[in-house]
């Protein structure tokens, strides 16, 4: 993603000279600013990420300290979000669990990108049998219900957070594959690729210099949606007890071990559930906002 | 029409073949000695040897796959490593539960989702649309196991309108069946209904701006007739495609829902098998569900052909 | 004037924009008698389509409104009628055909059903009656093998045939007034000619009034009895067709005539320099003066002209109409 984009660099150099038409990036920023909900969602995500990052500073208690005399307290002045069945402070645990939930989602998404994007580039750029084989495999993976496949992969590997992340990444990889492949195929037909090829550009140079930057915009949308998806999936898998293992916890596993106490202490279930809901909602809204700001040409990333 | 179905059915064969490769190939990914990994740390060498023989691990990979595939095609998906129960029998026991759940949830999602989406499109930009759009966004983001817990607590434990779990077969007691399936189906349907509502809203807004809608208005047809009779049929075409894709999602999410509502379906079977690392059961669940998903997708495609005259007359 | 079929008087239509309501049609008046064809002529964006949609009661609600004026059909005021009563009139007493035959028919329904829907709505026809009548209508508009084609979907028809189906729909309830908004613009020249002949023949047979909206002077000359020329939302000239062609009284009309090729073929308007101004950046004085080579500084850019009777039955909105000699065609 740190690839230097020649077009943008040139645009930046020329901008002071005249009032040229704005660059795609400027136009995107201007449009995105108008997407009010998406801007709010971005702020929410940044705040949540900061809260997770600064958990040691923001936590009021040791998240693992058990005070059995303080079990199942409702939210109060000492314990803002109450305590759980072992007398642990829910507020502090929520912050630390958020770290794991977010980190797991980032890693799962990264795995999905690491698998899907290069293969998508290869399929779209090389075409032929490579494309046929990879596309068939992607079709097959996508026809298997995602959560079932993720669970199966977790079962094969070993139930823990790493397995869960790998599983989610693998399950989501075909989405990145299809998107990158489609963008690559579209860009491939553009004249500037022809031009680059005719002046003797190597495949690698053409891919990194032209194809990748052009596939980037729809990828950003997909990444945002993938983050929401990964958080939900990690939560589901951990809720079942097949993801993160004690003493660590994520929002999903916090929920999983609290269900028995729902009637006595509803906050134990409500709070982590709301944390997941708000975070996923924010990522989805950002994704929609980015898509709507990118203009017609990339409005519809593959489903 | 029949030729189209036959052609689509034929196109499924290679896809299912790749799925079997993937599902069976999972075994190869097991790190280290699979027999050792499956048996666990406390197993005796004899137990490990037994598992090895059970799985036929000493044969070359293609032979093992070929044997498994040949059995699978004949309806034999192997034996559970723990219960010595036939995987096929276990699945046959559990399938009715999952199929009922997914079927009811799908109907619910289609009816509720398309209605909400169509309503939002006809009120585009007005308060009704805003409220519905926010609702669908929340519906997409809500963790369904959490939603299920809230529903159980409120409607089953507090109000006692529905049982909190368990399955009643349709053949025993149709009303009891519906009551037992109602809350799980609502839980399962929420995300899919939200997705379909989004698609329908986009599709319907698009259709309502087409020239032919203006023609219907110029004919003097009433707005409600135009929306319900004409625009809805046009708008449903892209939504049907999306609805087909949602079937896989429903079967996936059904796993968690079955656990929460204590339904003994295929999803719950798969989750148990994952805990036990009962490989043949996991493989059987994934394979059978995927084949069902593909067949349902085919049905959805056929129904698309029924709605779209261009496909039908080709 | 009381025997007029349609009387439009002082019509003003406004659209909502970011800068408030913009007036896109301003003080438009005309009448159409029974059996008469009125040509409404102008470049795209001049407000002619908006005028015809206003008559149909098909302006988009909320984002547009009729700000002033009246629209009377058979002496009955249509402005302000509730949607339920307007929809009783549409497709029944007043029908409309549109520019784009390729997209104006519903792709998901058989053409017969689309014709039958009008009859069932306004005539309370039974399913089988409506179907029989649909076949008759398809025969009337010249679709071969109508009895078989009635069950076909629109995508199996060509553009010209689809426009015939549109005409069949419009004529199903034998309307008093037919509004045709550029009905031939999207068609090939030969098909265009056939459709025009069909319309002219049907009009004679059914005695309808026709409001024919077009940008094409050639088409106007073939079909209309009288012409209303619009520019930037206003009527700039109004007279019998021959009058307008032979003795135009507005420089804009003169410009339009100058664009006509010697043979009245299908030629897009061009040759008048500049662009039609938008409703939010109208020039002061005469709206046409920036593009007018007769314009007199200090007069045309200051005083807005009225629509005055220059010759008997011939009105023009030009301050110089009596002073300049304009070139018609003969």
UniProtKB/TrEMBL annotation, chain A:
<dbReference type="InterPro" id="IPR025966">
    <property type="entry name" value="OppC_N"/>
</dbReference>
<keyword id="KW-0472">Membrane</keyword>
<dbReference type="InterPro" id="IPR000515">
    <property type="entry name" value="MetI-like"/>
</dbReference>
<dbReference type="GO" id="GO:0005886">
    <property type="term" value="C:plasma membrane"/>
</dbReference>
<keyword id="KW-0813">Transport</keyword>
<feature type="transmembrane region" description="Helical">
    <location>
        <begin position="219"/>
        <end position="244"/>
    </location>
</feature>
<feature type="region of interest" description="Disordered">
    <location>
        <begin position="1"/>
        <end position="24"/>
    </location>
</feature>
<feature type="transmembrane region" description="Helical">
    <location>
        <begin position="38"/>
        <end position="59"/>
    </location>
</feature>
<protein>
    <submittedName>
        <fullName>Peptide/nickel transport system permease protein/oligopeptide transport system permease protein</fullName>
    </submittedName>
</protein>
<feature type="transmembrane region" description="Helical">
    <location>
        <begin position="100"/>
        <end position="125"/>
    </location>
</feature>
<dbReference type="InterPro" id="IPR035906">
    <property type="entry name" value="MetI-like_sf"/>
</dbReference>
<feature type="compositionally biased region" description="Basic and acidic residues">
    <location>
        <begin position="12"/>
        <end position="24"/>
    </location>
</feature>
<dbReference type="InterPro" id="IPR050366">
    <property type="entry name" value="BP-dependent_transpt_permease"/>
</dbReference>
<feature type="transmembrane region" description="Helical">
    <location>
        <begin position="265"/>
        <end position="286"/>
    </location>
</feature>
<keyword id="KW-1003">Cell membrane</keyword>
From TrEMBL, chain B:
<keyword id="KW-1133">Transmembrane helix</keyword>
<keyword id="KW-0812">Transmembrane</keyword>
<dbReference type="InterPro" id="IPR035906">
    <property type="entry name" value="MetI-like_sf"/>
</dbReference>
<keyword id="KW-0813">Transport</keyword>
<feature type="transmembrane region" description="Helical">
    <location>
        <begin position="238"/>
        <end position="261"/>
    </location>
</feature>
<dbReference type="InterPro" id="IPR045621">
    <property type="entry name" value="BPD_transp_1_N"/>
</dbReference>
<feature type="transmembrane region" description="Helical">
    <location>
        <begin position="131"/>
        <end position="157"/>
    </location>
</feature>
<dbReference type="GO" id="GO:0055085">
    <property type="term" value="P:transmembrane transport"/>
</dbReference>
<feature type="transmembrane region" description="Helical">
    <location>
        <begin position="281"/>
        <end position="307"/>
    </location>
</feature>
<feature type="transmembrane region" description="Helical">
    <location>
        <begin position="177"/>
        <end position="197"/>
    </location>
</feature>
<protein>
    <submittedName>
        <fullName>Peptide/nickel transport system permease protein</fullName>
    </submittedName>
</protein>
<comment type="similarity">
    <text>Belongs to the binding-protein-dependent transport system permease family.</text>
</comment>
<dbReference type="InterPro" id="IPR000515">
    <property type="entry name" value="MetI-like"/>
</dbReference>
<feature type="transmembrane region" description="Helical">
    <location>
        <begin position="97"/>
        <end position="119"/>
    </location>
</feature>
<dbReference type="GO" id="GO:0005886">
    <property type="term" value="C:plasma membrane"/>
</dbReference>
TrEMBL record, chain C:
<dbReference type="InterPro" id="IPR017871">
    <property type="entry name" value="ABC_transporter-like_CS"/>
</dbReference>
<keyword id="KW-1003">Cell membrane</keyword>
<dbReference type="InterPro" id="IPR013563">
    <property type="entry name" value="Oligopep_ABC_C"/>
</dbReference>
<dbReference type="Pfam" id="PF08352">
    <property type="entry name" value="oligo_HPY"/>
</dbReference>
<dbReference type="InterPro" id="IPR027417">
    <property type="entry name" value="P-loop_NTPase"/>
</dbReference>
<keyword id="KW-0813">Transport</keyword>
<comment type="similarity">
    <text>Belongs to the ABC transporter superfamily.</text>
</comment>
<feature type="domain" description="ABC transporter">
    <location>
        <begin position="6"/>
        <end position="257"/>
    </location>
</feature>
<dbReference type="GO" id="GO:0005886">
    <property type="term" value="C:plasma membrane"/>
</dbReference>
<keyword id="KW-0547">Nucleotide-binding</keyword>
<dbReference type="InterPro" id="IPR003439">
    <property type="entry name" value="ABC_transporter-like_ATP-bd"/>
</dbReference>
<dbReference type="GO" id="GO:0005524">
    <property type="term" value="F:ATP binding"/>
</dbReference>
<keyword id="KW-0472">Membrane</keyword>
<dbReference type="GO" id="GO:0016887">
    <property type="term" value="F:ATP hydrolysis activity"/>
</dbReference>
<dbReference type="GO" id="GO:0015833">
    <property type="term" value="P:peptide transport"/>
</dbReference>
């Amino acid at each position: 993603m740190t690839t230097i984009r020649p077009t943008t660099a040139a645009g930046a150099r020329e901008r002071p000279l005249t009032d040229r038409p704005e660059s795609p990036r400027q136009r995107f920023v201007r449009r995105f600013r108008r997407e009010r909900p998406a801007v709010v969602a971005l702020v929410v995500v940044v705040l949540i990420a900061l809260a997770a990052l600064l958990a040691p500073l923001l936590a009021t208690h040791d998240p693992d300290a058990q005070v059995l005399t303080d079990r199942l307290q409702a939210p109060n002045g000492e314990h803002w979000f109450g305590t759980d069945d072992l007398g642990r402070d829910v507020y502090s645990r929520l912050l630390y669990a958020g770290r794991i939930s977010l980190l797991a989602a980032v890693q799962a998404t990264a795995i999905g990108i690491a698998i899907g994007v290069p293969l998508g580039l290869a399929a779209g750029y090389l075409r032929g049998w490579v494309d046929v084989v990879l596309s068939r495999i992607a079709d097959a993976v996508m026809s298997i219900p995602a959560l079932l496949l993720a669970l199966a992969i977790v079962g094969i590997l070993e139930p823990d957070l790493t397995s869960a992340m790998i599983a989610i990444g693998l399950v989501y990889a075909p989405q990145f594959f299809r998107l990158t492949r489609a963008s690559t195929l579209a860009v491939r037909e553009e004249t500037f690729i022809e031009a680059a090829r005719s002046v003797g550009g190597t495949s690698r140079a053409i891919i990194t210099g032209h194809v990748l930057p052009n596939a980037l915009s729809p990828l950003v949308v997909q990444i945002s949606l993938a983050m929401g998806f990964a958080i939900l999936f990690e939560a589901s898998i951990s809720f079942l007890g097949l993801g993160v293992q004690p003493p660590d916890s994520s929002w999903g596993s916090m929920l999983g071990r609290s269900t028995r106490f729902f009637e006595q202490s509803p906050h134990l279930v409500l709070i982590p559930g709301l944390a997941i809901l708000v975070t996923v909602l924010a990522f989805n809204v950002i994704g929609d906002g980015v898509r709507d700001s990118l203009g017609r040409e990339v409005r519809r990333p593959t489903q | 029409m029949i030729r189209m179905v036959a052609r689509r059915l034929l196109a499924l064969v290679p896809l299912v073949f790749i799925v079997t490769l993937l599902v069976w190939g999972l075994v190869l990914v097991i790190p280290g000695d699979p027999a050792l990994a499956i048996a666990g740390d406390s197993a005796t060498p004899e137990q490990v040897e037994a598992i090895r023989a059970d799985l036929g691990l000493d044969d070359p990979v293609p032979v093992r796959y070929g044997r498994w595939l040949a059995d699978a095609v004949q309806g034999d998906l192997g034996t559970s490593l723990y219960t010595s129960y036939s995987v096929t029998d276990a699945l046959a026991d559990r399938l009715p539960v999952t199929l009922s759940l997914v079927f009811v949830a799908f109907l619910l999602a289609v009816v509720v989702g398309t209605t909400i989406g169509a309503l939002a499109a006809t009120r585009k930009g007005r308060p009704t649309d805003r409220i519905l759009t926010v609702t669908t966004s929340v519906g997409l983001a809500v963790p369904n196991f959490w939603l299920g817990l809230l529903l159980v607590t409120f409607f089953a434990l507090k109000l006692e309108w529905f049982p909190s779990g368990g399955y009643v077969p349709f053949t025993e007691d149709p009303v009891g069946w519906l009551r037992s399936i109602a809350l799980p189906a609502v839980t399962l349907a929420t995300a899919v209904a939200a997705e379909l509502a989004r698609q329908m809203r986009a599709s319907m807004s698009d259709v309502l701006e087409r020239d032919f809608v203006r023609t219907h208005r110029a004919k003097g047809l009433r707005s409600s007739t135009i929306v319900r009779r004409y625009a809805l049929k046009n708008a449903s075409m892209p939504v049907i495609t999306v609805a087909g894709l949602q079937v896989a999602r429903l079967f996936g999410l059904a796993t968690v829902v079955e656990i929460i509502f204590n339904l003994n379906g295929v999803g719950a079977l798969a989750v148990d098998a994952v805990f036990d690392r009962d490989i043949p059961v996991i493989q059987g669940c994934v394979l059978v569900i995927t084949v069902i998903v593909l067949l349902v997708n085919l049905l959805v495609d056929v129904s698309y052909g029924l709605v779209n005259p261009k496909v039908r007359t080709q | 004037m009381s025997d007029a079929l349609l009387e439009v008087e002082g019509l003003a239509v406004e659209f909502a924009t970011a800068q408030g309501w913009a007036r896109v049609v301003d003080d438009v008046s005309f009448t159409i008698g029974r059996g008469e064809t009125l040509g409404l002529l102008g470049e795209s964006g001049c407000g002619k389509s908006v005028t015809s949609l206003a008559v149909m009661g098909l302006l988009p609600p909320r984002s547009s409104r009729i700000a002033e004026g009246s629209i009377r059909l058979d002496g009955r005021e249509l402005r302000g009628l509730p949607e339920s009563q307007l929809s009783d009139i549409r497709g029944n007493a007043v029908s409309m055909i549109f520019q784009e035959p390729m997209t104006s028919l519903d792709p998901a329904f058989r053409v017969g059903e689309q014709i039958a829907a009008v009859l069932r709505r306004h005539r309370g026809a039974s399913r089988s009656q409506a179907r029989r009548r649909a076949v008759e209508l398809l025969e009337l508009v010249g679709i071969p093998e109508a009895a078989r084609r009635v069950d076909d979907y629109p995508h199996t028809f060509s553009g010209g045939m689809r426009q015939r189906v549109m005409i069949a729909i419009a004529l199903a309830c034998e309307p008093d007034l037919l509004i045709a908004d550029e009905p031939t613009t999207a068609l090939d020249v030969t098909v265009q000619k056939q459709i025009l002949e069909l319309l002219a023949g049907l009009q004679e047979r059914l005695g309808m009034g026709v409001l024919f909206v077009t940008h094409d002077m050639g088409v106007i000359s073939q079909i209309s009895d009288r012409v209303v020329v619009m520019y930037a939302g206003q009527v700039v000239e109004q007279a019998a067709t021959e009058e307008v062609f032979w003795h135009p009284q507005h420089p804009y009309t003169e410009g339009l005539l100058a664009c006509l090729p010697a043979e009245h073929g299908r030629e897009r308007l061009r040759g008048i320099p500049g662009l039609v101004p938008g409703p939010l950046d109208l020039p002061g004085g005469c709206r046409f003066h920036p593009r007018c080579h007769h314009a007199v500084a200090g007069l045309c850019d200051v005083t807005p002209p009225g629509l005055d009777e220059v010759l008997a039955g011939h009105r023009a909105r030009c301050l110089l109409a009596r002073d300049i000699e304009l070139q018609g065609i003969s």
